[in-house]
Amino acid sequence: MSYLSIEGGALLHGELTIQGSKNSVLPVLAATILARGVCRIENCPHLRDVDASIAILRHLGCRVRRDGTALEVDTAPMARCDIPDELMREMRSSVIFLGAILARQGEAVLSYPGGCELGPRPIDLHLAALRELGAEITEVGGELRCKAKCLRGTDLTLAIPSVGATENAILAACGAEGTSVIYNAAREPEIVDLQALLRSMGARVSGAGGSIITVEGGAPLHGCTHRVIGDRIVCATYLCAAAAAGGEVRFTGVDYRAVSTVALALAESGCEVRSEADAVSLRSAGALRSVRPVRTAPYPGFPTDAQPVLMAALLKSEGCTVFVENIFENRYRHVDELSRMGAEIRVAGRVAVVNGVRALHGAAVKCTDLRGGAALVIAGLSAEGTTRVTELTHIDRGYDAIERDLAALGARIRRETT
Ligand code: EPZ
Q1: How far apart (Å, rounded) are the C-alpha atoms in residues 317 and 125?
Q2: Residue nearest to atom 13 of ligand 1 (CA)
């Protein structure tokens, strides 16, 4: 078993290029199924979730070759339309493959993706959108059996701006005859990146980044080369790490606008934040102030994925900060672990109240989920003494060697194996 050993107290200094975005590369890899030919996807991070996606593509019969931080996907040999249970369990967001498989093969079979650490992860909006496009979907014994002799373009409205449901609807609509208009679409930057990839394949998609996305389906799609955008949540994580530990850092490879709500909160806490086109700098004396209530919301609101890491940065701030988690039902599982380090946090339903403490102390803590794990690392950087973080598989789903990046900035952190 491997764990991270962190000696708190080191300032963070230096510059880092942020890895490619996990939440962009996953739907992008699913979208390659729509192209008959080879897609070269660049800036692909080395992550467990990317490995899971590669395993699914290979199971379907596609050839996938990793070339450093690029992946070459050849879907010509694709012969299957099912995702087996063990691959679905590896990564619940594998449901993002559903629309693309359906569009390509006319049928798809996958086991019902279970919930995850963040609570039940329903896919009713995904299924409703695909049914509107003409898919027949039955749920038999935990398995989703989908058929679509011919997907037909239509106007559809998402009850909530779900990121995954928006992506599934776009991918299925690309394979539908006629035009689809998706209303109340998610506006995340990862959707804009998916549109850019699809356009490179020859798809006619427009409106991504706004709430109304139009897809003129049916065009034969070809291979392409696409560079994935930088990971805004990894950037937000490292900004929070520097804010908590103190120091001066600069991160490149991420559009500032994609992290602006997090940068604004850190500026309010007393950090000096400077933005450039595709870079952001932060200077912190380490002593932070509490900030006005942080309410998570769909993009461009405050990202739910940054809630745990901003919370970790504010554990020693002067005063009290209120968090309201409006996206997921169970996204405070990191709170108990942070409390083991001396944090003072009270949770009531969707609300968490952080009372800043004078000091945190190192402890043995366990990752509960991907971003909750990152929060523990941030707390360890600003704690007195040594923190040991276990259950690293959670962190490795979304961070490409977090210890390498933070050590490069001066953190006293290393990965050990027992
Ligand atoms: C994506 O998950 C991200 N994952 C999540 O990042 C992120 O937290 C989330 O969007 C919100 O931004 C990927 O992109 C791979 P949603 P997704 O559908 O698509 C409810 C991380 O840490 N909902 O926008 O699953 C759902 O329960 C991960 O990188 C339905 O009710 O999120 C949630 O409350 C965690 N029915 C809300 O919508 C549905 O059919 C938003 O979920 C779908 C979703």
Answers
A1: 39
A2: 23
Tell how far the Cα of 60 is from the centroid of ligand 1, in angstroms: 25
Structure tokens at 306: 């940054």
Our answer to whether residue 116 is catalytic in this structure is yes
How do the pLDDT tens digits run along the chain, 418 residues long? Answer: 899 999 999 999 999 999 999 999 999 999 999 999 999 999 999 999 999 999 999 999 999 999 999 999 999 999 999 999 999 988 888 999 999 999 999 999 998 876 677 777 789 999 999 999 999 999 888 899 999 989 999 999 999 999 999 999 999 999 999 999 999 999 999 999 999 999 999 999 999 999 999 999 988 999 999 999 999 999 999 999 999 999 999 999 999 999 999 999 999 999 999 998 789 999 999 889 999 999 999 999 999 999 999 999 999 999 999 999 999 988 999 999 999 999 999 999 999 999 999 999 999 999 999 999 999 999 999 999 999 999 999 999 999 999 999 999 999 999 999 8
Tokens of 283: 């200077």
Mutate to test the pocket of ligand 1, among 50, 163, 400 (most ligand atoms within 8 A of CB): 163
Residue pair 247/272 in contact by the 8 Å Cβ criterion: no
Of 8, 19, 1, 10, give the one whose Cα is nearest residue 404. 19
